[in-house]
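Field notebook, page 728. I keep forgetting to write these up properly, so this time I am using the form the group agreed on. The chain and the ligand, magnesium ion, are recorded exactly as supplied. Prediction of the bound pose follows.
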Amino acid sequence: MSERRFAAIAESQKRNRLEIKEKGRRSELFAMNVFNTKRMLQYLTKDALQSVESAIFSGSKIDTKIADQVAEAMKAWAITMGATHYTHWFQPLTGSTAEKHDAFFDLLPDGRALEKFGGRQLVQQEPDASSFPSGGIRNTFEARGYTAWDPTSPAFIYGTTLCIPTIFVSYTGEALDNKAPLLRALHAVDEAATAVAKYFDKNVSKVNATLGWEQEYFLIDKALAESRPDILLTGRTLVGHSAAKGQQLDDHYFGVIPTRVLGFMSDLEQECTKLGIPVKTRHNEVAPNQFELAPVFEEANLAVDHNLLLMDVMDKIADKHGFKVLFHEKPFAGINGSGKHNNWSLATDTGINLLSPGSTPMKNLQFLTFFVNTIKAVDTYEELLRSSIASAGNDYRLGANEAPPAILSIFIGAQLSRVLDELEGVSMGKLSPEEKTELKLNVVGKIPEILLDNTDRNRTSPFAFTGNKFEMRGVGSQTNCAKPMTILNTIVAKQLQEFKKEVDALIDTKNLKKDEAVFNVLREYIKTSKRIRFDGDGYSLEWEKEAKKRKLSNNRTTPEALQVLTEAKSLALFKSMHVMSEVEVKARQEIELDAYIMHLQIEGRVLNELVYNFVIPAVINYQNKIIQNVMGHKELYGAGHIKMTGGQLDIIQKISEHMKTLKEKTDTMIDARKSANKLDDSLKKATVYSERVKSHFDEIRYHCDKLEQLIDDKDWPLIKYRELLFIK
Ligand code: ADP
Ligand code: MG
């Protein structure tokens, strides 16, 4: 690393330390750029604050007068913080975030400033929506799209812009983004879980889904990354022989973080802290140049926003440090890819984690209720949950023996399995006092002790219970968490609704006590959802066979995985939970398929370019040098040269062989791509892309990588893995 760079890092660390010193501890920097309750207290009247808080708590409407007040307050605060512009910040279905900046003031021709930011501008905006994907919604309804304020996620200042988190919907109310369905799903799970939680504690009046994501990423030197068309255009390497040293020594995981990376992390954490993103842990990951960042968990909607914001902040700060962040699920062959574990739970407004076992049998019955219902929900809708993490990038990772398989199953550990087995054995109907005591003391009552030593964590499981939360492990590193969180919370909401109906029916018709009814229904669920529980090796072939017997889905590719979205069972679920209409679901499926096609199309084109414009010319040049060398020998020694040039001739021949197959495979892939492009139906097109275009990528790569090994290092036109992967 250059002296200059060292100096720059030292400088930025000094700046960060100074800033922390100025503000006291780091905790005082926390959320200084966020218009949170603390700021609102300073800037809003009591009425206005109450109105915003009730909107946050119960989703009630904020009237125009109050909106004006809030806008005024936000603006006043933002201007004191140096902001000059504001934007509605939203999550179009492209996967990232979008914003359109407007100045707080307009200048009149006579030079007077006209105030532009009021309640109307806060509550609703109409961005030029035509360039965002709508999956046909806007055409169908000939409606415009508008963004609407989401008061549950506080506004924040980023750079010199006040960012207001918003949903993005069509004029007729269809969601054109990832946030609107998420908010609906969170509302559904709140209602359903609150109703069930009231069985155990009447004081519960709200349940929040909580999310703690763990973001994995690679850092690559920016200049090197930019020299490779594949990284630049697709976010991953399409060719490249693995470095002599990879991750086999396991020396990167939890190893010392390189100085240059520390400089980046320190800046990043500082910025995150100011933005109220509660980042907590950072460490190296398994692969060289791979890292992970995790925050303290938060309410799911806020956590989703924070993850999206983080990805954006990371891009910018990396750039300042001469890095490029790769969020792609599989940037390099031969070493691990990146994911984004989603840790999920349910928390009441009385401060209880519903997936955390408690100190009394009753609390544990509550735990078991939410635990078993989650298992049941995932069992009923396993294929739908799988669909929520499908993407072109994640297809390279799921099931590749480094990430969970494409088959969904749940790991709960041996001890909790035993608890469920015991519960299953209890007789039906009314319980005798002895049975009840036995159940409460010896089965349910033992849970907390059990969990303490339930430390064996099965890393191959896609959905694991980890003590007080479930961890969804198949989520791709680029994926917007809103997608899996929308599905997970919807299916759990639906399941809890069903559960409540069944329990109430038993209480009413069979005259059972509440806890008896709960036990009875849970026992049935334990029986009927058994197939989803699997504690063994998720990477093994045996599991694949076993899962097939259990009739669990195994959708390896995105086109396969997305089909379930529009099946009658899924449409009915979304409709009954008021999460998405049929039009919205179909639009989403269409957009996801199109994104898949586009990603593979771009990869195919870039691969074509790499082969024809980089690899083949370089290889021919090098081969010519050897041919010249052989000709020189011939000139010097005549026919006798053959005895001396065997090595050269062998290389010439090997190069020709690889080049011949490389060209053939590439041409076949190009033809397949062209014929795929003629198809109109998205599902068909995506399937053909998966089966006939992408299917050639590996072979093309294989021959490129062989050629990389055959020719002079100086003649190879692409930066190699060993140069990309070992940041000091
Ligand atoms: P790892 O999976 O890397 O071993 P942990 O098991 O410590 O890490 O979990 C890390 C994540 O789990 C953190 O992001 C943390 O915030 C989150 N988490 C902890 N408790 C909860 C909860 N109740 N709800 C949601 N996320 C949680
Ligand atoms: Mg984890």
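OBSERVATIONS:
- The longest strand covers residues 207-221.
- The two ends are 7 Å apart (CA to CA).
FOLLOW-UP: compare against the apo run.
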